[in-house]
Amino acid sequence: MSDIRWGVLGAARIARKQVIPAIRRAGAGEVVAVASASGNAERYAAEVGIPRAYAGYDELLADPGVDAVYIALPNAHHMRWILAAARAGKHVLCEKPIVLGTAELEEVTAACADAGVQLAEAFMYRHHPQLRRLRELLDAGAIGDLVTVESSFHFTLPRSEPPDIRLRRDLGGGALRDIGCYPVDLLGWLTGAEPDDLGVVAHRDTPDGADTRTAVAARYGAVTATLHCSFDAPFRAEARLIGTTGTIELPDVFRADQRGGTARIRVERDGDVSVVEVEGDQYGEQVAAFARRVADGVEDAAGTALTARTAATLERIAAAAGQTASSVL
């Protein structure tokens, strides 16, 4: 059982439904405080069973009884509060995308290193054991050499007034940053590289709005890829890897939690099909891995490098789609 004392910045649904239960389930510490600028902190704390509630994020960061924070704020607020947390000596697990560009990533990384605190991006899918099994299959030549990857993430986001924060360009919203980041991150993990070439098309509800649909064609060395995301189609979060001798389909690659933690890996080669089911708790493994980093003081070099590749690629895609944004400071 970890003795890390967690604070949560932002009374967000993902914290309530996924991350806080995962911390408790995995024995990754105790959630002792929550802060919300919307005035919901006390009600949220009472409902979730958190002992302390703060009306401001600075108040929580000043709490000496908090060791680490989970940041679940709008994307454009991530950099400001990572920097503030580092100054307060708090370790940081921040929702994806961790920041809105490479310059911001360099700044928060340097600040956390100077403060001697751990910083990690909350890409929970990275921690599901299906990725280890997938790597074993690829290394064993299960589908020969990788030729192309097709990956997509879609769900239907209702339009409303005021608009959902995921549709607010000023807050770093849009389909690319909210869910397109997953296929981008997966390609960075698979190839260990950023794309050599890419082309982008995007759709917006209004000319100056956030993207609601984005499609990317990219080349990573000899591997080609197509990536799609939208707020306008039924739920899909999948990938297909096509090799010189076979295909691997990953229908649950990003959201295995939707099937109780079970991820399916479908391998087809020479007309033969096999399906492997891999059990895992991706949110639990994520917070447990972060708790170990805090306890050991050892950086996850591979994860840090992947975060840098993903940030750089998202920045290029956003620029190509005319979807630039900056953090709120």
TrEMBL record:
It comes from the Bacteria. Transmembrane segments: none annotated. Keywords: NAD, Oxidoreductase. The keyword NAD applies. Residues 132-249 form the GFO/IDH/MocA-like oxidoreductase domain. Pfam families: GFO_IDH_MocA (PF01408), GFO_IDH_MocA_C3 (PF22725). Residues 4-121 form the Gfo/Idh/MocA-like oxidoreductase N-terminal domain. The keyword Transferase does not apply. Belongs to the Gfo/Idh/MocA family. This is Gfo/Idh/MocA family oxidoreductase. The lineage of its organism: Bacteria, Bacillati, Actinomycetota, Actinomycetes, Micrococcales.
